[in-house]
Amino acid sequence: MTCVITSEIFTENKNLYIKYKNNNAISSFIFKYPSYMIKSKCLNNIINHDNDNDILLDRQQEGKLLIEHHISTNLQYVGLQVWRGALLLADYILSNPSLFKDKIVLELGAGVGLTSIITSFLAEEVICTDIDVKGMLKLIYRNFIRNKNYIKAKICIKELDFLNLKSFTSYKKKLDKVNVILAADVIYDKTITEGFVQTLSELLNSDISKVIYIALEKRYVFTTADMKTTAPMYEEFLELIEAKHFNWHIEYIKIDFPQYFKYNRIKQMVLMKIENKLNK
User: Fold this and answer.
1) To the nearest whole number, what is the mean pLDDT of the chain?
2) Closest by Cα among 26, 29, 32, 33 to 15
3) CATH of the domain at 271
4) In this structure, is residue 61 part of a structural domain?
5) Largest Cα–Cα distance of the chain, in whole Å?
6) Domain ranges, residue 228
7) Following CA atoms 136, 137, 139, 141 in sequence, which dihedral angle do they give, to the nearest 10 degrees?
8) Where on the tree of life does the source sit, at the highest rank (predicted)?
9) What confidence tens digit (pLDDT) does each residue in 67-112 have?
């Protein structure tokens, strides 16, 4: 029996979407502009004024991303939806522009591309990757086109499959130049989690200092075998890292930074920072 899954994003906060075609929808994701973006608009004379020449801040304090996505999927295609982790990571990027400005940024498992689009406000180049199934890469491309007025970075959309690392052999030299790696909500399946850890290992095996930001949600289940509640995929991820004895520096980032998107930032959400120890 196939289990159909729908992201909480579309059941909480009354996030609205418009049916597009087949099982696809287009949602408006409203976000508040960080102060530096409002200032930038002022410098570029984009701020609107009323008849008395007063600034219409109410129009300029919010932006809107138009994102095409699936309404529901089975487990293997959940990347076609939008999840809380992508919005948490987007909030962190908007809250810390200096960490991403003029950087070459790679997103793993980008799904519908929302986090990559936000990153493109600041970065020099964004390499947006995922597996090429169900038209995923074409959907990402359409979402970049829908939001082209926001895009400041050079964009590269490529396939990268955690379970087939040969998929990025053709552009490995480009990946070697990456400064920052992003991943949101990619830890939900044992096999994929194992592939994700191996992918991180390949990418961090570099002479260039790299930092990874991973956003995820601890999803708890009760097991009768152990008679306790656990977050199995999160724990699997940590166990895999520990077992490999990687020379990585791991830090947990407090998630009390400003919230720009509308979603429930629940306590089960986690934001991890991982660095390869070159100069440590």
Assistant:
1) 86
2) 29
3) 3.40.50.150
4) no
5) 70
6) 76-276
7) 170
8) Eukaryota
9) 999 988 888 889 999 999 999 999 999 999 999 999 999 999 999 9
